[in-house]
């Protein structure tokens, strides 16, 4: 008798779960699980050890419901932001090709068809004309992008050596995502994605919600320690450790929120602020001039409401506009709200 124990080859976990085969996706998944676990630990300790908070569930259900709602909204915003697209240049090129194709097709459809012997003869395939003219011709994209730069700019300067595409202003190649990102801000390790034009607003709201949740949770921890500091010392030690970790995280979140709020008001990105002198089109612009700023109020409005597409692109201002931006502010400018409009 032939023993056939363990003769069936075992399937690797990476075969059953494709997301585990990629090291980058695997590390991103582990970070997401770690972040959710941290939220459950900090919130769970309040429910387990804070008797006053448990009593408020019956006495003040609205208070507890609002706190739990904030926890759920924060986690939902985290996954919503991490799963959103920052706006890739290749996707913008496809969108541009589709738009151009539809415009060309509509132009062709408006042209009168040729007739011969009273019979209408269609000489052009209207379904494929736009695709042929635009979809297979990257020169249209190159011309459109280069019109956003000052005259005389070389195409080679803004052609990505990895993606081999012409980058519009404010775009940058992300080596973690291996794609060119529109209005690149930074690559967030905790979210596992780039922060760019398509998800910068969602990222700001996530930071705000996370900061509010951390402040509320810290207040609940402090109330617990004030009420029961002399009872169970082991629980108090754990709560003090968690509160210390929470305080460090809160300081980081507050600084991050203030920093990105400043970027939003001035219409800048982290990459533009940190690597200003390494970006070719920003080298000759004075330090205190923000070339893409439309004023604080207009910047806030565009950031939150006005943007209708994640593929919208901003051209560089001309020499005359830059000269006006470089003029120092006066008292009259402050009264007239020049910095806001």
TrEMBL record:
**Segments forming domain Palmitoyltransferase DHHC:** 157-275
What InterPro entries does this protein's entry cite?
A: Palmitoyltrfase_DHHC, PFA4/ZDH16/20/ERF2-like
Which Gene Ontology terms of cellular component type are present? endoplasmic reticulum; Golgi apparatus
Q: Which GO terms describe its molecular function?
A: protein-cysteine S-palmitoyltransferase activity
EC number in record: 2.3.1.225
Entry annotated with the keyword Mitochondrion = no
Answer yes or no on keyword Isomerase: no
Membrane-protein topology: Multi-pass membrane protein
**Enzyme class, first EC level, given as a word:** transferase
Q: Name one Pfam family in it.
A: DHHC
Q: Write out the entry's keywords from A to Z.
A: Acyltransferase, Lipoprotein, Membrane, Palmitate, Transferase, Transmembrane, Transmembrane helix
Localization: Endomembrane system
The record's section on PANTHER family has: PALMITOYLTRANSFERASE ZDHHC12, ZINC FINGER DHHC DOMAIN CONTAINING PROTEIN
Q: Which family does it belong to?
A: Belongs to the DHHC palmitoyltransferase family.
* Domain topic, free-text comment: The DHHC domain is required for palmitoyltransferase activity.
Name recorded for this polypeptide? S-acyltransferase
> Mind giving the lineage of the organism this protein is from?
Eukaryota, Viridiplantae, Streptophyta, Embryophyta, Tracheophyta
